[in-house]
Design a protein that fits this description.
Number of strands: 21
CATH architecture of the largest domain: 3-Layer(aba) Sandwich
Number of helices: 15
Bound molecules: NADP nicotinamide-adenine-dinucleotide phosphate, magnesium ion
Radius of gyration: 25 Å
Shape: globular
Strand order of the largest sheet: 9-8-7-10-11-20
Helix content: 25-40%
Length: 502
Amino acid sequence: MAEFKLFINGEFVDAASGETFATHNPGTGEKLADVPKAGREDAVLAIEAARRAFDEGPWPKMSGKERAEKIRRIVELIGAHAAELAELEALDGGGTILKAQMADVPGAQSAFEWFARMAEERPEREDLEGSPFPASQNYLRYEPIGVCTGIIPWNFPLIMAAWKIAPAIAAGNTSVLKPASLTSLSALKLAEVIAEADLPPGVVNVLAGPGGSVGEELASNPMVDKTAFTGSTEVGRRIMQLASGTVKAVTLELGGKSANIVLDDADLDLAAGGVLFGTFFHNGQVCESGTRALVQRGIYDDFLALLVEKANSIVIGDQMDMATNLGPLVSRGQVETVERYVKLGRDEVGEPVCGGSKPDDLPEHLDREAFYRPTIFAGVDNKAKIAQEEIFGPVLCVIPFDTDAEAVAIANDSIYGLGGGVQSSNLERAEKVAAGIRTGTVWINDYHLIDPKRPFGGYKQSGIGRELGVQGYEIYRQIKHVHINPETTGRDNHFHYGVLGV
Ligand code: NAP
Ligand code: MG
């Protein structure tokens, strides 16, 4: 069994309490490792290290170009450890090894690469128009914010870790990261990889431990300047409260119940692929999943038949097998949540048109309790709880509509606004529909494609602020306005002091 440690102030250490907790492969139930269980005490040590690295260390004072060089070294090192990182990610979280190789590892690399580029390219100073009367010179300085903490969920631990650490350190901040307790291995491994890049101690710190202690400390400690959280809307509300004590900057990426709208002119085969990929990728444990398929009435029956046929062909099995399309969910507990919602769906809507149970043809070595079949409820009323609440599992609601305006209204009838899709062969029509949806990202004839070059985040209760893109870099910088009155002696340019008669 591999060993994992906390990464605090450039050193790999055990928890101060000496406590550990076990982490498992959800597919087999096999124990993977005992991980040091950080508590508040360790969180404070990490925050103090990050504070010192910011206040006294060289990192914030380095030029963007110098920081970019170090961050590009991290990109190379992730590449050198790619196989191990992918394996840990798939083993610990239950996502397929294919996803880990194709999405998780390259996704983490591309985030570090993008923010290295931001550090190089974005201005550190910007001249402004001066005022004539009194004459002045004015400019902005873009400065790091300080100590930035990140708290991440279990669905994409490696990519989420990169989304929190990379923009923070690229902009000259220091970082303390807490992965989700179900999936802490890849983030702890990433800390080892980052250590090889030889950043000054305390610039990056990674702690595994409970949200209720470590997470709360990271969101509330007065030495922290900004906290970025990805996870449920419920915990997001708590993070805002905790951060309000010292008015920290907050970025929140929260839940979703996104609509994928299939217009009657869509290529049905392509659109069915788009809806199934949009919902069932990673078992629907993706915040922007298109878990409400809005289908126009004229094509409804044909489209539903196609969806069901294709959904039934998805191969469920061992996530470490390259031929598997869907592995286990992250835990038995997550399957129980899905079962609760499927029961609710049966009461609200009726029998699902496919799925609705655990698979019964799994190989012996797998834990059936951690798997669930792709499940589709048809003819769902958007007011139903299964259409309003985030399930975070492989459950799709298919909702009929008549007009484009009605589709937009149904899509917007949600407390969330994170993702969404429009499937159509008429791009002009699709863009009109896209413009009407109140959501952070819309994919036309596609789904789930996230590139660090473009901002990602939510409207409404899906969050605050944006990650990635230029916006996701600037959100890690403070803006200082410097006003210079060039008259260093004499009073000609200071008539306004006369207001006080001084
Ligand atoms: P979660 O329960 O909100 O947990 C997320 C993280 O917050 C974990 O690291 C958790 O630690 C920590 N945490 C829990 N309680 C806390 C508290 N009181 N103070 C500070 N930290 C606390 O969510 P999850 O179950 O891991 O993930 C699923 C949810 O995340 C879904 O609702 C999904 O939509 C959302 N999500 C959103 C996005 C997005 O980009 N918008 C991306 C991925 C996931 P422990 O693991 O130790 O409990
Ligand atoms: Mg695990």
